[in-house]
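ping. complex inputs:
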Amino acid sequence: MSKKQTPYHISRLIYKSVTQTISKNEKDELLKWMEIESNRRFYHHIAQKSVIEKKKSLYKATNKEIVYKRIVKQIEDKKHKKAVRLKRLNILKYAAVFIIFLTAGTWVYNRSFNETIITENAIKNIKPGYEKATLVLSDGTTIDLEEHKNELIASSNTAEIQNTDKGLVYNIVGKKVPINNIPQALKYNTLRVPVGGMYQVTLPDGTKAWLNSATSLKYPERFDGEQRIVELEGEAYFEVTKSLKEFIVKTNTADITVLGTQFNVSAYANDSYFSSTLVEGMVRLSSESSSNSVILSPNQRAILNHNDTTFNISQVDTEIYTAWKEGKFYFERERLDNILTRVSRWYNIDVVFENDYLKDQTFTGVVLKNKTIDNLLDMISKTTRINYTITKNKTNDKYELKLTRD
Amino acid sequence: MSLNFENVILNLKKGDPNAFKQLFDSFYEKLYAFSFNYVKDEYAAEEVVENTMLMVWEKRQNLDAIKDLKSYLYKSVRNASFDYLKKKKKVVSLDIESHDSLFNFEQHIIQEETHKLLIDALNSLPKKCRKVFEMCCIEGLKYKEVADDLQISINTVKSQRSRAIELLKEQLKESHFYLFILNHFLIKD
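pong. complex structure:
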């Protein structure tokens, strides 16, 4: 008799009752069930015309076929991924796999025709970033480094600045500190990398710094005094030459103090966090908002959210946070809004989300930065239900990437 | 109407995509509408059902360990819907799960099962008698009212209504047999 208790059986009885296909016995059974007041009310509720009509229109909005295709696609993709994992491919090959997925799947997803054309034209015009920067000398002179490749940019009594294939290089001219030992006022230079740019600089002490897009680094033409101090806004990777003099990277949020080591710092004013990832050696982080300073060991990443007072430290694969300087976007379970913030700095575009829900989607993957933007976007739209269009914003003449639900 | 579950599960375990499609086709709307009761968002409901169906495919080898596939699907969708709500941190009461008593859960199932049966039945009827049937049986109008409204005779209303009911009765008889045949046909394909 337990069959009578199941909701499936009850719904069959209700169906038969509504369609008047119910037998005498079944009707008695249903009436017994309906003796309970709440059941009776429930019966009349779901048999109502308006309720059924509502359900009909909900059915129509279900995108049944599209969802089915998507499931099949995911099943297929998972088969691929399994095969790939077995081969233990390195990162670059992963990138290649994404491209294969991309070509295999482009015809599957559908965008409306017009949008596709506008977007395709826009994609042609959106160029990935490349090596460019401007240098501001201590006297205020601004030099476009892209226009002065392989040139001696400036020389003074303290330093010689060469613009080489490997970026800007500072060489100290006078080998020793001035004999009279009167500390001279430090001459500061600022290297500014625009959105869509990237640049490398070798500082007077031999320390190398890679500057990511939308970043500026201020440093003296030579490091005198007890400490080597630079100021950073944006993101940079440092390989600091070992010395007894502390090397300090000052940012708006926190300072990083090291002796000699390799680490990444991301301190964009318009990001909601500061972060530093240590590859080698040891660094100390301190911040005005955080009373304690923390020490990072290799393979650790510290995050300080702008509204927070403590550093959040986690073990990471440092490659993820340093891949940008090798010309790669590398994301691991990264939120889409964070991904696109970085992407927009490289391709110089604006990003708009149709729905906040989309921002929370996370992705893992590697994309080469010298590819056109659709390379990355298709990877995203193919693996999830996110679609995109790109249009030109007439007011600021920038391209606008809009993410929508598929 | 109702699937021959033993067959579907058997074929699903073999990795038969047709069996998966059958399962998907017969459950999609129900599960979607069921999830919608909780998440109140079309997009989220879609995703919940999508993920649940994907999980069924991935766990297909263990399916016969799940005694009642229907209830398993509903439970999975319910849990996934809760997870979604938690993730969204929607302002729903914190003890949402205890609020959703067994009674609620079963009511939702009854509602979605009944609606799917009804909507499928209506769609299966020829257009003419569907209208008459809807007005008589679902709206509960009198023959005279239906006749006036559709500008047909009362006798026509009566005969169309009976015809609709006869057709639906036939379907009830045939449904199991029909799907059994269909299963075999698809497997050979």
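The first strand of chain A starts at residue 130 and ends at 131.
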